[in-house]
Amino acid sequence: MIIRIPFEIVELEHQSYHIVVDGKIDDVDLTFIIDTGASRTIIDKCFSDKLEKLTLGAENPMATGLSAEEIPVELFNVSKLKIGEVIFNDVQLLTADLTAINVVYLNLTGKKIGGLIGCDFLLKKVKSIDFKRKFITISKKE
Prior knowledge:
The chain is mainly β. The protein is built from 2 helices and 13 strands, in the order ββββββββββαβαββ.
């Protein structure tokens, strides 16, 4: 089944844009940035208290910001991730402190960001991003 998820393009500053989409983690409403430049999907650590923490094993994930500073992260399983009206079950993602992003976003847009949907998720789930018609196309098994 092919499903289209609508998104909004937010202009942060002149010629500076982000794709944002509404969603949920379990039953908490969130706004996500669709971040094609982020290697991993990350949610704000303030939501992690109700999630299943996973052991890292040999993997030691670390997020890196634009200024190359390392950001400590933890690996979690989300039983139900909703993007638009589409539900994805058992999604592994990282958590990190997104306070700095939220300060900027709240000041510029009035929105609070719950997380970044990164390339790990996009490569597995998304078929295309249509910027002109403002929707993401996914293919989901029924």
